[in-house]
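Mods, move this if it's the wrong board.
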Amino acid sequence: MAAVKYLYNTNLAKGTGFINESLMLIEFYEEGERRSAFLTRCITANVLDKSTEKRTKDVINLVFFDRYWREDSNVIHFLKLMRRDGLSLEAMKTLFFVYTAKANRVLFDFVRHVRLVNRNEKVNIAIARQFILDSISFNLAPSWSDSMIKRVSSYLITCLKDFELLDSDGYLTLRMPDRRVINYLLHELHFDGQSDHEILDNQVWEVLGFSDYQLIKEIETISFNGTFIFQYSGEILKIGWNYQSMEEFIENECR
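Not the wrong board. Structure tokens:
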């Protein structure tokens, strides 16, 4: 009998927010570099200062590559260009959060859950633990031990803190991302082959805290700069895209 493949895993344990390391590794990356060559250079240069070779391999394979490496899109190169073109650290954290949530469905769904269910409550270990218990009962996660449930719950809260999604009192923040981040994500979804309506309905906007109305207004505002032509009537949505690739978009819109 084939083993059950669960939607949730414990990969967050290797890195949680991983913000400073992501910035270092993205800067260290050379365009067109293969995974094996990049990993070898990281070990040789000890880019993750004082890490053992095994730790470096684990971190790069299970965290960095898992979050940012895609065979069909050079995400690391795009992030490097965005940072070099002046994208703020706060905005970079938003992009790091999105990629981390996409790579770790447990985080993605937890943030959606607290935005919908616990938005007026302090987000703490107890809420995270109940989310994990419910996930196990719905067969989304393995039957983790009590100690593992406690650890995964802690990782979820730590990630929210790392990405500054909790305020000083522990409530989920609702500030809007930098419009260059929104524009970047719109174009990434477009070049991933999603239709205009699929882009609008993508769950990533829920994770970032957008209501449908807020998202429409943000897209409309971005379109005033001439990045794309935006037409929306409530039922009919049409976006006229100006660029043929992410590189062209970043070159023209993100400097």
